[in-house]
Design brief:
The protein has 3 domains: 46 residues, Transferase, Pyrimidine Nucleoside Phosphorylase, Chain A, domain 3 (Up-down Bundle); 227 residues, Nucleoside phosphorylase/phosphoribosyltransferase catalytic domain (Pyrimidine Nucleoside Phosphorylase, Chain A, domain 2, 3-Layer(aba) Sandwich), CATH 3.40.1030; 90 residues, Pyrimidine nucleoside phosphorylase-like, C-terminal domain (Aldehyde Oxidoreductase, domain 3, Alpha-Beta Complex). The model has no long low-confidence stretch (mean pLDDT 93). The protein is an alpha/beta fold. 46% of the residues lie in helices and 14% in strands.
Length: 440
């Protein structure tokens, strides 16, 4: 089979056969299909899409392209469940949700990715913690999940290796915003992780890959339906991404905000709303709770009692990080050398934000990738990010830029200023969670 013929078939709108999809996945794994041809097929899918059957076949082939975890032998006393976000700016939910859900009786083997396009990556962020082993072998991964309740790692060479290569190529070839490719990428890892249940956080807005509610819902339905073909019960929440989530965006700065949240020192309202809603849905999808109010109450108690932050601390130590990280996180996390507040040209209410542009500013600072395999500066980013509806001016900046150089800070400041619209009138409030979707 010539792969150029497969590319041409999809370019012309044809439906790929099971054999052609299997050939593609095998070529991803053994690298017999070069990156330029992988990118060409991905671009063809961007323009011509895939049928449900094609998407389901691509998902299952990529899931089985490496090791598929089986938790049956671990004798766990609770369900195995995970959450996945479609990506956004300042999305640090994973670091909060995993220990909270574990404190509520779940086991969370969270296998995450690096930054994709303008959005940050959970794996890049967790590597801000010195010593944290983000790509362990499966024996250590399983041990940590069993003993602490959760572990956050990246894809190993053995887990869905076909997706690992396709994901990296899509990141730098403008082939991210494809519903079939996003569906297959997400679910191949989750199916390979051996989950009992999954909760999706599908972002919608200017900082999301799905800027319209219609496309976000279409993606959520695609994931729920495709997951069902593999026997994976999945619920999806459509959540807002028209601005950064929380007060920080970057790598180390998001870990710092996560610690403050788990210690119940500061919980930004929109971030808290998304975290609580997702955690509650995890308890519902696994059957731990049937009532949403009871689930939310259990989640809240796991935070205020200190149970969740204790799980987070034990997970970090078990994965090679500092045992006293929670007490000394400000000393351990990398810090930028330059801090520049970005003030608006006029005083008024922050009315609108181009969140995609904010993500681009972080990339320009060196906190995100422009080329495949590029090393990141984990110290850079944004803090003190103003929320839409907040009064900004000389006393309240739009954000504070953390940069490695004056030039970088100046460029990022300009991008942020242009991304923000100021109004004399306070804008209407938007929901944080728009809808909850299930297969029922």
């Amino acid at each position: 089979m010539l792969f150029a013929d497969v590319i041409q078939k999809k370019r012309d709108g044809g439906e790929l056969t099971a054999a052609e999809i299997e050939f593609f996945v095998n070529g991803l794994v053994d690298a017999s299909i070069p990156a330029e041809q992988v990118a060409a097929l991905a671009m063809a899918v961007i323009f011509k899409s895939m049928t449900f059957d094609e998407t389901a076949k691509l998902t299952t082939e990529m899931a089985s392209s490496g090791t598929v975890l089986d938790w049956g032998a671990e004798d766990l006393d609770g369900p195995v469940v995970d959450k996945h976000s479609t990506g956004g700016i300042g999305d640090k939910v994973s670091f909060l949700l995993a220990p909270i859900a574990a404190a509520c009786g779940c086991y969370v083997p969270m296998i995450s990715g690096r930054g994709l396009g303008h959005t940050g990556g959970t794996l890049d962020k967790i590597e801000s913690i010195p010593g944290y082993h983000a790509t362990p072998d499966f024996d250590l991964f399983k041990k940590v999940v069993k003993t602490t309740g959760c572990s956050i790692i990246g894809q190993t060479a053995d887990l869905a290796p076909a997706d690992r290569r396709l994901y990296a190529i899509r990141d730098v070839t403008a082939t991210i915003q494809s519903i079939p490719l996003i569906t297959a990428s997400i679910l191949s890892k989750k199916i390979a992780a051996g989950l009992d249940g999954l909760v999706m956080d599908v972002k919608v807005g200017s900082g999301a890959f799905m800027p319209s509610f219609e496309r976000a819902t279409k993606l959520a339905r695609s994931i729920i339906g495709t997951a069902a073909t593999a026997g994976l019960k999945t619920h999806a929440l459509i959540t807002d991404m028209n601005e950064a989530l929380g007060q920080t965006a970057g790598n180390a700065v998001e870990i710092a905000e996560s610690v403050e949240f788990l210690k119940n020192e500061y919980r930004e309202a929109r971030l808290n709303g998304v975290v609580v809603a997702l955690c509650a849905e995890m308890l519902i999808v696994t059957g731990i709770e049937e009532d949403n109010a009871a689930a939310r109450d259990k989640v809240e108690k796991s935070i205020t009692s200190g149970a969740a932050v204790e799980v987070f601390s034990r997970m970090i130590a078990a994965m090679g990080g500092p045992a006293d990280f929670l007490e000394k996180y400000t000393e351990y996390l990398p810090k930028a050398s330059i801090y520049v507040p970005v003030h608006p040209a006029e005083t008024g209410f922050l009315a609108e934000v181009d969140a995609h542009a904010v993500g681009s500013a972080i990339i320009e600072l060196g906190g995100g990738r422009q080329q495949l395999g590029e090393e990141l500066d984990l110290s850079v980013g944004l803090t003190d990010i103003a929320q839409i509806g907040e009064m900004v001016g000389t006393d309240r900046p739009l954000a504070v830029v953390h940069a490695a150089s004056e030039d970088d800070a100046s460029l990022a400041s300009e991008l942020i200023s242009r991304a923000c619209a100021i109004s004399a009138d306070r804008p209407d409030e938007r929901p944080t969670v728009y809808e909850v979707l299930t297969a029922d």
